Amino acid sequence: MLLFFWLCVGKQQIIITILLKIKIKPCILWCYRNNEDLNFVKSYEPQNKNITQLRILLHGPFGAGKSSFINSVDSVLQGRITGRALTDYISYKIERGNEGYYSFIFTDIMGFEQNASRGIHIEDVKLALRGHVAEGYKFVPNSPMTQDSGSYQASPSLDDRVHVLVSVIPAGRVNLLSDSVVKKMREASVSKGIPQVAILTKVDEACPTVNNNIENIYKSKYLKQQVDRLSVILGLPSNCIYLVKNYGTENSPNDDINAPILSALRQIISYGEDFVLIEK
């Protein structure tokens, strides 16, 4: 019996033909995909020489798992569980052994909240996207940065600007997003033509079948429904929304959790790279 598995790798499609005499386990394919995605991430270098690193900005509602996603990416690439306190407006680099750092950086910002007096102001997000916010700035709810601020960068370079925007939302809270939070997220996404993708986190908490076995992440009808709903809410294509389980209670990384993280990271980098090439 021949089964054909189509795996999307970049802009190419690879057909893997496997002769089956016993039931094949998904981990065989996931290990292959992990290697492909990991090699892509490890070898990535921006082709636009006007930037040194691709800047990825994460935003979303409070408690969505933005910091946990950064730590999860770090854990995958380091091959061990890592954790660091993510505070203020700081770019987070990931070490690449003795070779310095990977050629992309994450920036995490305060979460959106329904109450206007809490959470990050939408105007601050727009300023961050355009590169006007200096490292270390502390956002003040309901009091956006002004040009008189000492942390305001009047003439940001392409290196200072954000190259891809990532919306992070818990999979079980898609239907609970308030109109005010959605409005802020949609408003941020139209800034300067910056590409946007979304990550649905905490998939294990949202779906019992995935909680029992992470390999069910792409089989879950419930998670597929949440992807479709978020696509409508944010106006994003479904293929720009990725399902991820962040590392939390695990003692060491494993391929089943790594696979969705690496797949999402690869696509995020690819979208950002396309953007900076146009911005030459």
How would you describe this protein?
With 280 residues, this protein is α/β, with parallel strands linked by helices. The chain has a single domain, classed as Rossmann fold, CATH 3.40.50.300. The protein is 35% helix and 16% strand. The chain contains 8 helices and 8 strands. Strands 4-5-3-6-7-8 form a 6-stranded mixed sheet, sandwiched between helices. Strands 1-2 form a two-stranded antiparallel sheet. β6, α4 and β7 form a beta-alpha-beta unit. α1 packs parallel to α8, α2 crosses α8 and α3 packs parallel to α4. The protein is globular. The N terminus is likely disordered.
Search tags:
280 residues; alpha/beta; 6-stranded mixed beta sheet; two-stranded antiparallel sheet; 8 helices; 8 strands; 35% helix; disordered N terminus; P-loop_NTPase; G domain-containing protein
Summarize the structure.
By secondary structure, this protein is an alpha/beta fold. It contains eight helices and eight strands. It has one domain: 3-Layer(aba) Sandwich (Rossmann fold), CATH 3.40.50.300.
Low-confidence stretches: 1-24
User: How many strand segments?
Assistant: 8
Mind telling me which CATH architecture this is?
A: 3-Layer(aba) Sandwich
What is the CATH homology-level superfamily?
P-loop containing nucleotide triphosphate hydrolases
What structural category arises from helix and sheet content? alpha/beta
Largest sheet: 6 strands, mixed
Mean pLDDT: 87
Question: How many separate structural domains?
Answer: 1
CATH class bucket: Alpha Beta
**N-to-C CA distance:** 50 Å
Beta-strand residue fraction: 15-25%
The helix content is 25-40%
